[in-house]
Amino acid sequence: MKKDIRQMHLKTLSLYFLILVCGIGLGVTLIFCLYSIPLNSKQKQFFSLEVPYNNFQHQSGLNPINPQVTNQKDSTTPPTNIAVTNTSSKRVTEEPKEVSETPRPAASSAFLHSMTDEELFWRASMVPRIRKTPFKKVPKVAFMFLVRGRLPLSPLWARFFRGYNGFYSIYVHTQPYFVGEVAPEPMFQGRRIPSEVVTWGEISMVEAERRLLASALLDFSNERFVLLSEACIPLYNFSTIYSYLINSRKTFVECYDQDGPVGRGRYEHNMEPVVTLKQWRKGSQWFEVDRHLALEVICDKKYYPVFRDYCKPACYSDEHYIPTLLNIEFPMENSDRTLTYVDWSKGGPHPYKFGKWEVTVGLLKHMQNGTQCMYNGEPTRVCFLFARKFIPSSLFRLLELAPEVMHF
């Protein structure tokens, strides 16, 4: 009996030893085969997770426009499904090249779209010839923020917008090298547009304004377009401002003829005969236009090239281009005044900046009712809907006074 058990153990050990030897032999064989394969051998690829660089670069509008609306069915931009496939098994390689463009953040969902200026202006210039829309259209106001980076007063604006989703759209143009969050509030998420470097006093300022207008025109529900800065605040609640703009029969672009070095003295005679000295106008950069005039600005091929080529510092195109264009082509559609209050009483090239110690009930009420103007042919004391320049330190004081003075 013991002999049989001993023989059984020997057979089991022999089997385990045979399996061990076979495993070692198989492992040595596989290692030899792997080391014999060249590192650059990739003759067969059953699938690829890479998107070719060239294919991605030439796709337009990869991120579809997604305006803020109350009902998703009311979206004015049809859904876009774009499939990008790679049918080639060859790796795309490029020679190193010198980088001459301004560095910009990687494309992400933070951007409203990914179109170039040429694509954007072409698409924005399309006008429906059938007036009746196949969806329920609620007229919206486009709030266009031309900023350097962050919106320090965003908590005030968030309170202003809260509860009115579907009646407004937001667009933000920053410096292209700004990396970070424009504002933490949800209504500002994903509202940044592709941008270029903006330099104060140069034509790049007008280019940024046109870029904002074109982006806002992509939403057919936008009827009024307001240009704002990071230092702007609303002087009334949303319903008051919305009603004022939507019901206005005219636009609000400051436009006047001024003698002296900061008015007619900026005119360049090479602009003739397209723009004459008699037609030359000046006005505040912070404008409000309707959809018709917004389209005329982005489609302009007559006056814009002249300003681009000849209006250079000390000619500031952002103060002259749109006022002059409207004075020549659409003088009866404009009210010749701005909706943004600015204090120039201290003199200098920039308006006065309001900090927390200057923000009082009296100051805000003076901005609201301190002057008289015309609205739809009737006199009114509601002439300014916005004001600037408010520095970040004024935020908490503004939030404190907003319920009492601005009623939001």
- SSE topology string: HHHEHEHEEHEHHHEHEEEH
Assign the CATH class of the domain at 53-87 and 107-338.
Alpha Beta
Within the largest sheet, what's the order of strands?
A: 2-1-3-5
Quote the average pLDDT. Answer: 81
User: Number of helix segments?
Assistant: 11
Judging by the overall fold, what is the CATH architecture of the domain at 53-87 and 107-338? Alpha-Beta Complex
Into which percentage range does the β-strand content fall?
5-15%
- First CA to last CA: what distance? 99 Å
CATH topology of the domain at 53-87 and 107-338: Spore Coat Polysaccharide Biosynthesis Protein SpsA, Chain A
List segments where confidence is low: pLDDT < 50 over at least 5 consecutive residues: 34-109
Number of strands: 9
Query: Which structural class do you get from the secondary structure elements?
Result: alpha/beta
* Main beta-sheet strand count, sense and barrel state: 4 strands, mixed
Describe the global form: elongated
Q: Give the helix level as a range of percent.
A: 25-40%
Rounded radius of gyration (Å):
31 Å
Question: Can you lay out the helices and strands and say which pair or pack?
Answer:
Layout: H1 2-35, H2 53-57, H3 117-124, E1 140-146, H4 154-161, E2 168-173, H5 204-217, E3 222-228, E4 233-234, H6 238-246, E5 288-290, H7 291-299, H8 304-310, H9 321-329, E6 340-341, H10 361-369, E7 373-375, E8 378-380, E9 386-387, H11 395-406
Parallel strand pairs: 1-2, 1-3, 6-9
Antiparallel strand pairs: 3-5, 4-9, 7-8
Helix pairs in contact: 3-5, 5-7
